[in-house]
Design a protein that fits this description.
Helices cover 34% and strands 16% of the residues. It is α+β, with helices and mostly antiparallel strands and 133 residues long.
Length: 133
């Protein structure tokens, strides 16, 4: 499997540790970056060059998607699409145009930059309006 195929199967992004566990050496990662097959998003995080999705944005902001932004990653249905990015941030800086939900309390998704399912559901209950048919 090549790096681009691996990244595509992982939502377009991956950490250096995940790439290493998949069998990609540091040399192979550096070569893929030099060839333009993938880009370095930030230290230890890589992605496809043409990808500009929410997973990449979450890695750029050093956060985990949660609430309505994380629902598609878990296959959850939503009544309305996310208007802004909902994030769990481990730092105090809240990027403009995002909704910060504080720290996550449960284990995160194993390979996506997404909060754990329990956190996603708890944040959605606190954040989204009550649905009345």
């Amino acid at each position: 499997m090549n790096v681009a195929t691996y990244l595509a199967s992982r939502g377009g992004t991956a950490t250096a540790a995940d790439l290493g566990r998949a069998g990609f050496s540091r040399h192979r990662i550096a070569a893929a970056v030099a060839q333009g097959t993938m880009v370095r998003i930030r230290r230890g995080h890589y992605g496809l060059p043409q990808d500009s999705g929410v997973y990449r944005a979450a890695r750029e902001l050093n956060g985990l998607l949660t609430c309505l932004s994380a629902a598609p990653g878990y296959g959850l249905w939503t009544l309305v699409p996310a208007q802004s990015m909902h994030l769990c941030l481990g730092h105090r800086a809240v990027p403009p145009g995002t909704v910060a939900h504080g720290r996550c309390r449960h284990p995160r998704h194993p390979w996506l930059p997404v909060a754990g399912l329990a956190d996603v559901l708890i944040h959605a209950l606190h954040c989204l309006p009550e649905f009345r048919p």
